[in-house]
Amino acid sequence: MWVFPRCSCSLAAAIWGWAALRYFGDQAVCDRSDHHRTPAPRYHSGQRVWLSTHDLPLQVESLQLSSRFIGLFSISMVNSSNTACLHLPRTLRVHPTVHVSRN
Q: Which branch of life, at top level (predicted)?
């Protein structure tokens, strides 16, 4: 059984707390995770975009042979920097608000 002196543990805990705060601080984490990302494109109402068919329930014989994108659909409203509302036909049967990574 290992017994550590009290001062050693509290010193180690203090050092770990300081190092963790320094390494895992909010800005440091954001900087490390965002260094490889590109900013989202800016869209505006009336702009026409393609829509990815990756998660769409399409009725096709072969998904591998179907188109990767469908469209062009006009943007009716930009909800935020990450989402946009599209003018979609009723036959598509999906929610009109999509993430910009799907455009």
A: Eukaryota
